[in-house]
Amino acid sequence: MTDPLRAARRFAFVFPLLLLVPQTLPAQELERPESLQAETEVPWIYENSDVPQDEEWLFGELENGIRYGVRENGVPPGQVSIRVRIDAGSLYEEDNELGYAHLLEHLLFRESKYLGRAEAIPTWQRLGATFGSDTNAETSPTHTVYKLDLPDVNAQKLDESMRLISGMIREPVLSDANVRAEVPIVLAEKRERGGVGERVSERTLQTLFAGQRLAERITIGTEDSLNSASGQSVGEFYNRWYRPENTVISVVGDLDPLLFASMVEKYFSDWEVAGTPAEAPDFGDPVPPANADPANPVGEVAVIVEPTLPRGFTYGYFRPWRQVDDTVVYNEGRLQEQLALSLINRRLEARARAGGSYLYAQASESKISRSTHATLVQFAPLTEDWEAALEDVRGVIADALANPPTQEEMDRELAEMEVGYANMVEQRSVLAGSNYADDLVNAVDIREAIAAPETFLMVFNSMKAKATPQTVLEETRELFEGEVIRATYVTPEASDVSEAALKTALLEPVDAADNARLAAQDISFDDLPQIGTPGEVVAREPHGIGNVERIEFANGVTALLMANTHEPGRVAVKVRFGAGLRAFDPEDAPYIDLGQSALIQSGLGELGQEELDRISTGRKMGFEFGIEEGTFTFGAQTRRQDLADQLYLFAAKLGMPRWDPNPVARAKAAARLAYESYASSPGGVLNRDLEYYIYDENPIFRTASPQELENTSVEGFREVWEPILAQGPVEVLIFGDFDSEEAVQTLSRTFGALPDRQPIAPAVLDRAIEIAPAGETVVRYHKGEANQAAAVISWPTGGGMDEIRKSRQLAILTEVFSNRLLDAMREKAGASYSPSVQLDWPTDVDSGGSITGFAQLQPKDVPVFFAEADRIASELTQTPPTPDELARATEPLRNYYERISSGNYFYLLELEGSTQDPRRMQALRGLINDYSQTTPEAMLALAREYFGGADGWRMAVIPEGEQLATAAGGASVTAQSGR
After folding, report:
1. For labelling alongside 608, which of 155, 380, 797, 875 has CA 20 to 30 A away?
2. Max CA separation in the chain (angstroms)
3. Where residue 979 falls among pLDDT bands split at 50, 70, 90?
4. What is the 3-state secondary structure (H, E, C) of 449-507?
């Protein structure tokens, strides 16, 4: 029974508004396909399980062995999600086939029975699917899954899509020519993934899973294996594993599930493969090293020296993975494991917050690739004293192993778990169909059943009734048992530690930390001070869009409310205030990122980090903080019963901020440790430097160096951020399932009670954020692999609301540019795995936008990238895109916006700021048309406006010690030294 709370998920926000979404097709009377299992049968996924069946699923099995599951789901409207899972991943490869499972994933998209060479991507785009998000695939150690989220669906479109997918799965063209064409793309992907991160990952796998297939079979494969691949050798792997018996199909969406089942039958029932199915290889068990001392369970350890990476420690307890019967009792035990780890992790986090010797620490449990059942502990020492950090972490865990938790601690964690499972039940009608489709293939992968939200809540309640401090203690002890203990330590200094010292430290007796547990506290929102005198509503009127209300209070705070029941149990809240990045003087720059990390954790009123956590126990609350070009934002997803307290937290942060020094110190430590790691790869250097250089060396975009961080202080942090919290108009947006009258009363007590806001100086509001002009190519250097580089080219556009409709047409032009660049750099040259072009058009300031192209590639191909980008930009100014190119750009855009425009959060984002700027409300009308309707002439005019006047701004990141010999287009090159 896969637990959706054990992995982060994003839910769709869906309900029909403004007639922007195509209506669900009327149900048709269809015959029940013969392959569907009868209601009296136990569905194949529930065999040997007493988990209650999710009745919304229909399951079937074809005579050739294919199993499938189908269900109806209208979230988002008009979409169908298809997943085809092959029970073969990298662990199924022989020694001479490393990387073949992943290579096959690529080859199935290259050419197949119904799709000619390189036709898959444009074909799916014409059907409205975006490559990479709606159309994708994944290869793991244990499976390969082909994914399609098909928008704007009807029976004919579904039929065509299933036909195309069946041709990909059943009859790919595995020729030598296709292998030769695809291998460079896979090697480009390997290169982009590679370098320091890949080395650490491979060494970690080899150490933690020593003696098992998982240790030696990296999914991407090796260069030798990939370069030696041929149509015949890859075909042998395909023939061995791509068989009906190894295939599971999941189809979920906004049509009759009987139609889904009939399509599976139509296109897969006659798939026959000769020969006896191959047996899956033995993945192996974790075993101690030969001649290991039973009294010394510490096995393989590794010290991984990487000068550009911060210190990081991982150790784990490894037990054999075994197939289990997925029963209710089994899942109760899994939930008790989750409870035990939650208790430990809260204590570890509290110790880090209080000034512990580590930046972070976390314990987790996982059944990894059907190879091991492991408990892992990971932490980052704050200094070179890794032994003190290890002792701290082990001390917290030792206490959990020696003494049962208090009932108060358990109640707190149980309340947190309960709100998650209860919220799933409340929101089940708006859970996205793509998530359900993924749930089925993931359940098959781990050999467990699938369950409805009500079942999860039922099992949780059953576990909760049985759990006692003693049973949690026993579960904790089982988690930290195992015949095999292994560890890795990543360090920038070879002199830090030896492998022998690592083993010794893990075997040293450790005392249970006597201060690890959190003291019981009873904190209630009812006991918190009022923010001020409740404010008077001076205006309340329709806002002009749907049922949106505009509220204004006497202190100038405005609010937009849209109450409805289309998304049960969901309320989206956003607060906008201040001037955003414009608010900072150049000398304040180091405090910007520190504020992003530490401002919210610094607390409010009498509440510090721990108190904020405790007071929100058992609630669905959040506190996201954003810094945009022209505004600051607070955001959260909450629910009706927690809305009042959520609004209090947001308003109190503005009205009664707290200035706890510990979060600032922790943020400084994290930023200092991260700084050197930026130099480890081209992508890291871009994360550190791109904004600074692309915005014409504007100091507010400069990543603070360790020295600059050292010069910051808690007092300086407060001096910068305290006036910002008090400045500028405040706008509150509340969209979702809540009561409007109660919300207005709460707003009066919270935001309406804030003191009058300080004005923002006109000079601050006039600060412009501008893209650097074209000129010399900025060259930066990284310390990673010699075959890695990155290139960026950018043209300035604009910003603000005056030309927002033009920005939407520019999005179409950007998609055309991106498709052409992908074709040139990936499909034709094999030089880059995922080159892309993106449009940035800020709406809260009137400048700073850009069209920016990016690629990771080899250093020798940097000039090629610039030349291709220049060529495409020039051609777009001379010849308009073809109708087919426009269709490939507009269909995915249209379908994307039709899908997201059916939910509360979409309207919140589109209407934010409209209490101060009515143009935002007006711009909402016609949005879909702006993204989906254009002409070749309009594209030609835009290309000439933005690409015809000047060359693009350029930046290249290359390895240290190399030179960028030439810059395409005649532009000169300037090298910027590292910081």
Report:
1. 380
2. 81
3. very low
4. CCCCHHHHHHHHHHHHHHCCHHHHHHHHHHHCCCCEEEEEEEECCCCCCCHHHHHHHHH
2's tokens:
């896969």
Side by side, which strands form the sheet with 777-782?
836-840, 850-857, 789-796, 953-959, 777-782, 973-975
CATH topology of domain 777-975: Cytochrome Bc1 Complex; Chain A, domain 1 (3.30.830)
Name which of 512-521, 648-657, 923-932 the model is least confident about. Answer: 512-521
DSSP codes, 746-766: HHHHTGGGSPPPBPPPHHHHT
Assign domain 298-432+440-507 to its CATH architecture.
2-Layer Sandwich (3.30)
Res. 19 pLDDT band, cuts 50 70 90: very low
Rounded CA-CA distance 767/813 in Å is 29
Q: CA-CA distances (angstroms) from residue 438 to 61, 87, 248, 428?
A: 19, 15, 12, 16
Domain boundaries, the chain: 56-268, 298-432+440-507, 525-765, 777-975
Which of 39, 50, 48, 53 has its CA nearest to residue 454?
A: 53
Calculate the CA 23 to chain-centre distance.
30
| Burial annotation 9-38 (CB, 10 A radius, 16+ → b, else e) | eebbbbbbbeebbbeeeeeeeeeebebbee
- In the chain, the amino acid numbered 842 is P
* The two structure tokens encoding residue 710: 């050292």
Instruction: Determine the residue type at 33.
Output: P
Distance from C-alpha of 23 to C-alpha of 25, rounded to nearest angstrom: 6
Identify the band that residue 901 occupies on the pLDDT scale cut at 50, 70 and 90.
confident
- Does the N-terminal peptide bond of residue 883 adopt cis geometry, omega within 30 degrees of 0? no
Please state, as a whole number, how many other Cβ atoms lie within 10 Å of the Cβ of residue 538. 12
Residues 716-731 have pLDDT tens digits of 999 999 999 999 999 9
pLDDT for residue 518: 83
What string of H, E and C letters represents the secondary structure of 816-840? HHHHHHHHHHHHHCCCCCCCEEEEE
d(CA 588, CA 329): 56
CA 626 – CA 595 distance, rounded (Å)? 10
Average pLDDT over every residue of 666-672: 96
Closest CA to 864 of 960, 951, 969, 785: 969
Neighbours of 508 (CB within 10 A): 11
Contact between 591 and 712 (Cβ < 8 Å): yes
What are 240-264's pLDDT values in tens digits? 999 999 999 999 999 999 999 999 9
Nearest to 934 by CA among 841, 805, 802, 795: 805
Strands of the 484-491 sheet, one edge to the other: 298-305, 484-491, 312-320, 372-381, 358-368
Neighbouring residues of 738: CB distance < 8 A, sequence distance ≥ 6: 563, 571, 640, 643
pLDDT of residue 966: 60
Between CA 259 and CA 730 the distance in angstroms is 51
Q: Determine the length of the chain.
A: 979
Work out the pLDDT band at 965, boundaries 50, 70, 90: low
The Cα–Cα gap between 135 and 139 comes to: 14
Domain 56-268, CATH homologous superfamily name and number: Metalloenzyme, LuxS/M16 peptidase-like (3.30.830.10)
Q: Which fold, 525-765?
A: Cytochrome Bc1 Complex; Chain A, domain 1 (3.30.830)
C-alpha 634/C-alpha 723 separation (Å) is 17
